[in-house]
Each structure stands twice: as C-alpha cells, then as structure tokens.
Design brief:
heterodimer; A: mainly alpha; 19 helices; globular; B: mainly alpha
Chain lengths: 526, 148
C-alpha cells in the first residue's frame, strides 16, 4: 500500500470545509419556512449562480473520481464518458429547461401531472424519482467509501462502513438545516473549489510536459500495460459484437439521461423564470466543458505519473486516480485539498439527491396523492424532512453494499433509468398535445420497469466475475447498460398507449394552458 | 381536487408577486379594457389568462413555430453528430486510431470536436432566443395583456 499523505491533515482540511459550509447553510436558511423555500429556495437564485450549482450536481464523485479514474485506467474508453457528459447539456438546454421551469413548481410530478389525472401520474412520477435517485445515490456513497479508504488508510470493510454512515449523516444534516437554499450554496462553493482545483492541476501538468497533451499521453502509454493501444478505443469495452453494442447503449444513456435526472430537473425551479433557467444551462455548459477538458489531462496525467498498475492496486481502485496524482505532484497538502474537495462533492451531490427524493415523496405522494392536494404546507415540509432521514438511511445501507464498484459505471445505470422513465414522458407532455394520462403512465412505468428488469437480468447482477452476485447466474440480457432497449421502449409505450386510448376532452383547457405556459411563459410566475 | 387547488395556488402567488411585475400586470390589463372595450379580452374577470384564446393568436403561433423550427433540427443535428462519434469509436477502430498530432489520434480530436459543437449550439441558441424568441414573447404579452 503506497503511503498517501497524512490522514490527520486530510481529515482536518475536510472538517474545516464541513464546518464552514454548515455555518453558511445555517446562515442562509434561517427563514426556511414556506414550501417554496424548502424545495426551490424561493426561486431566488440567479441564472449564473444556478448554472454553477447545476454543474456542481455533475462535477460529482462520479465525474471527478470516476471519469478521471476511467481515463487513467482505460484511456480512450474513459474519455468517451466525458464527451457524453458535455453533449447531454444540449438536451437540457434545447428541450427541457424552459418548458419545465414554466410549467412546474417543485417536482417532476408537477409537470407530468399538469394536464393529466393527478393521483396516478403523481404517484408514478414519485416512484420513478425515488428509484432513480436511489441508484444515483448508491453510486455517490460507493465513491465516498473508496475515497475514505484512500484518505484515512482505512482498509477494513467495517471501518469504511462506519465512515460511509458518517458521511450520510452529515449530508442529511445539510438538507434538514438548509433545504434547497443551503444545498444550492454548498453546491456553488464546492463547484468553484473543484473547478479551481482541476484547472490548476491541469495547467501544472501541462506545464510540466511543455504544454503538450501529446507528450503527456506519450508518457502515459509507457505506464500502461496496453502501451499505445490504450489511446485507441476498446481498452475497456473490447471488440466482441456485444461489448460494442453495450458501449453504444451506455453512450445513449449518458446523453439522454443526464438532463432527465430528478435532482437536476428540480434545479430549474430555483431560478425565477425561464430565461434565467436558460442562462443557467449556458453557464453549466461552459463549466462542464472546462471541467471535462481538465479530466482528460488529469486522467492521462495520472496514467503517466502514477501508472495504471499502482492506481489499480490502491485502496479505492480506479476511483483513486485523481487523489493519487494530487499526492504525486503536490504532496500531502494537495492530496488533502483534493480529497476534501472530492468529499465535499459527494456530500453536496447526495444532499441534492436527498432533497429531490424527499420533495417528490412529500409533495407528490403525501400532499397530492394521500391528502389529495389539501395538505397543510407545514406538515408537508415535516414529511419532506422525515423522508430525507429515511432516504439518508437507505443510501447509507446501499452505499455500504456497493462499496468498491466503479462509480461512473453505477451512475450510468441511474442515467439509463432516468432517460427511460422521465425523458420520453417530459417531451411528450410538453410537445405533444394528444398525449394523455394512459400514455403518461405507460411511458413512465414501461421505461422504468423495462430498465429495472433488464438490469436485474444483466451481467451487472449475475453470471460474471465482476457481478454483484458473482456466484449466481440468472443473466439472459447481454448488455451491461439497458438504455439502448429501454429508452426507445418507453417512447414506444407512451406513443402506442396514447393512440390506443381515448382522448381526454375534459383536460383540453389544461392542455392549452400547459402549451401556452411552456412555450411563452405566460401565467408561469409562481 | 388536486388540479384546481394547484391552479389557484399559482394565481394567488401571481397576485402576490412583488414589485414592478405586479404593477405592469395591472397596468396592461387596465390599458386593454379602457382603451378599446370591443377588443377581445385575454383575461378573465378574476385575472386568469384565457389560455385557449391566447393559443390561437397569430403571435403565439409564430412563437411556437420559431421555437420548434430551431430546437428540433438542432437536437437532431447534435444527436447525429454525437452518435457518429460513438459509432465510429465502436465500429471503425482503425479509422479513429489514426494518429494526427503526436500520439493524439483522430478519435480524441473528434471527441474534443463534440465539446466545440456543444459550445457553438449553446451560444447559438442563447443568441437565437434573445433575438427571435424573447421579442416575440414580449409582443404576445403586449397583445394579450398578460405578463409572465
């Protein structure tokens, strides 16, 4: 085990960050009273602030640790993730952000149920949100486990489990104390720190190699057992017909799933209007482009300076490439800073996820399904806070179970789920007037259900050495990522169910309202 | 009923919304009914916009056409470009492995090209929205007397 800095130093940098952010969260949220404050920060953020926070949702453990690690281990195939992550913002910008901002208030359910029968659609939207957020959260918690292992040199599974539980508790605290406003501020602070951190590391690395990316990659090939082949496609996905298809499926899930994630969709409500929502996506695109250019440098830099074998052998595996590189170029102090930032990233992202899940349960299920729209706002928020605690506990358990998996890969499953359940339904409901309640339910459940079934019977769960249950074999679906099948399937389900079910003339007025609001913003001020 | 409750929620919120927005809202409504009583009113007596009427105005149709003729072709374009990159990476390994600058190969450059097209489309849309969509939204708001 290579020594990786001073655990006490690492911990103190991190503790300082947590204390400062907790203080800020406490300060900004002393007037945390209405539902709009708790769920959507009173829609008070500017486009620029929200854009940075939006990108903060993505500059997560999965991106920073998972993708730089993916590049450090698999070269070209890791880089493919970065591309998907950037291009995906166009889906959010062109198709989703403004229409969503104009028609909803707090949750995805608001938009999907706008002109449909309230109870079944809200219940379906909440189910989808909870499942997607849970998968995404497990990925983040697994990342936390790997990072802790590296930072504090905790190698026993039990020690890591206790630390994952601690991380979970801090993040629930953020949500309970700060609501959306506090969570957004944590996200902004963290995104700025992380961007500074990766930019400085990249500039330093490039400087070290005479500002030639080619030189870094050249040296990288010497520290990877594949040699120059690592710069070509196929290092991770190989060349069988199935693995190529699996790769295409993953790429599709990435590009369509990112802007369909519930906690990202919820971010469009924290700005006052649609043009600020548009501005926030423009900001997010810029920060994402810079960030992913940097991960390319950092990934190959880690391969060049640390070496793929050493990364694979470190506690935390691939996920530890960026922290190891930080130690290599800046010693214990830089490792402490990078790790604290990465840790903060996990905390902030998981807090956002918890908020999305608890909002969906409290606002859609409790207030609109159980109480039929007559819930007292204070009780609704109490339910939301209670849900946040439950979600926190579940994610701690899930995170402990998934400890050790590559986090970028776990995230890709959540993205497949999000694209399958949410994207088709949102697009239909905003842009297709004929779409009705039956179609909505079919496209949500068809997408979510097919995606879950295919994951269950894929090599991810059983039948391969890398499966979650390696000793069992009940896999019959050959692809690791189901997006290629389940995303078109959900579009098809929504389409067929709509045209084979009767129109809903009683919803015509709501449909007209939705169309006008989504496109023009008239009547959208909330 | 959930829907009715939601609708009311929006309106009470809208009436309460602070400062100048509310001011403009009242002013424009007053203008429409005072100046020309025969003109079609796009707002109910209780202040709810008549969405079906607004939807049928020429201004709204123009706005909708301008929006969809931009976003759908652009979506098709960037998806096609992204999928081309992905499919080339998966099925034309030798082609994308061609070295171009030092050890940097065509595939990496194509990937970085996706970054560039993303920026271009993002800025292009922001510009289009500012020049062609937002002014049209303003026209519509002026005609109907309903602010955002």
């Amino acid at each position: 085990m290579p020594t990786t800095g001073n655990p006490v130093l690492n911990l103190s940098v991190f503790a300082v960050f947590v204390l400062i952010t907790l203080y800020i969260v406490y300060r900004v949220s002393s007037r945390n009273v209405t539902a709009s404050d708790y769920y959507a920060a009173g829609s008070s953020f500017t486009g620029a602030q929200n854009g940075v926070a939006l990108s903060g949702d993505f500059l997560s453990a999965a991106s920073f640790l998972g993708i730089s690690g993916g590049i450090a281990a698999h070269g070209y195939d890791g880089f493919l993730y970065s591309v998907g992550w950037v291009v995906a913002w166009l889906v959010g910008l062109l198709l989703i952000a403004e229409g969503l901002r104009n028609t909803g208030r707090f949750t995805v359910g608001d938009v999907l149920a706008f002109r449909m029968k309230q109870r079944p659609v809200r219940a379906a939207a909440a189910n989808a949100t909870l499942v997607i957020s849970f998968f995404y959260m497990i990925a983040q918690m697994a990342g936390a486990g790997g990072l802790i292992a590296l930072l504090l040199n905790v190698t026993s599974k039990w020690g890591q489990a206790i630390l994952i539980a601690l991380v979970g508790m801090v993040m629930v605290l953020y949500v309970l104390v700060g609501g959306m406003k506090g969570t957004t501020w944590v996200q902004i602070i963290k995104a700025v720190l992380l961007l500074l951190c990766v930019t400085l590391m990249s500039v330093f690395l490039l400087g070290k190699f005479g500002f030639s990316l080619s030189a870094i990659m050249q040296q990288a090939t010497e520290n990877n057992k594949l040699g120059e082949a690592v710069l070509d496609p196929g290092a991770k996905y190989g060349f069988s017909a199935m693995s190529k298809l699996d790769f295409v499926s993953l790429a599709l899930s990435l590009v369509l799933g990112i802007a369909s994630l519930p906690h990202v969709l919820m971010r469009f409500y924290t700005v006052p209007n649609a043009s600020e929502a548009r501005r926030s996506v423009v900001w997010a695109t810029w920060t994402m482009v810079i960030f992913y250019l940097c991960t390319l440098v950092i990934g190959f830099g880690a391969m060049a300076l640390v070496g793929t074998d050493k990364i694979a052998a470190a506690p935390g595996g691939e996920n530890s490439a960026a922290p190891l590189l930080a130690f290599e170029i800046g010693g214990a102090v830089l490792l402490g800073v990078v790790s604290a930032v990465a840790f903060a990233t996990i905390l902030a992202v998981v807090a956002g996820l918890t908020l999305a899940a608890s909002a969906s349960f409290a606002h859609d299920v409790y207030a609109n399904v159980i109480k039929r729209g007559n819930a007292e706002p204070r009780r609704e928020i109490r339910v939301a806070r209670l849900t946040a605690v439950v979600v926190g506990i579940l994610s701690i358990i899930g995170g402990i179970a998934a400890n050790g998996q590559n986090v970028a890969f776990l995230v890709s499953l959540a993205l497949a789920l999000a694209a399958s359940a949410n994207l088709s339904t949102i697009l239909y409901t905003i842009f297709w007037r004929r779409f009705n309640t039956t179609g909505t339910l079919w496209s949500i459940y068809g997408g979510l259900g097919s995606c879950l079934v295919l994951i269950l019977f894929s090599p991810v769960m059983s039948g391969a050495k890398t499966s979650i249950f390696p000793d069992l074999d009940f896999a019959w679906f050959p692809l690791g990522n189901p997006g290629l099948v389940s995303i078109p399937f959900s579009f098809l389900c929504g389409f067929l169910a709509t045209i084979f079910s009767p129109r809903e003339p009683e919803m015509a007025a709501k449909a007209a309202e939705m169309e006008v609001r989504a496109i023009s913003g008239i009547g959208a001020r909330t | 009923m959930g829907a009715a409750h939601e609708g009311q929620g929006y309106m009470t919120k809208a009436m309460r919304s602070p400062g100048e927005a509310q001011h403009e809202y009242r002013e424009s409504r007053g203008f429409a009914s005072f100046d020309d009583p025969d003109t079609l009113s796009y707002v109910d007596s209780d202040g709810t916009p008549k969405f079906e009427l607004i939807r049928q105005t020429e201004e709204f149709r123009t706005l909708r056409r301008r929006l969809t003729t931009f976003i759908f072709p652009m979506t098709a374009l960037f998806l096609a470009s992204y999928l081309t990159f992905v499919l080339l990476s998966a099925y034309a390994k030798d082609f994308v492995s061609t070295k171009v600058i030092g050890v940097i190969n065509l595939g990496i450059l194509l990937g970085l090209g996706q970054f560039v097209t993303s920026i271009i489309i993002t800025l292009g849309y922001a510009r289009y929205a500012k020049r062609r969509l937002d002014p049209q939204r303003k026209l519509l708001a002026e005609k109907t007397g309903v602010e955002e």
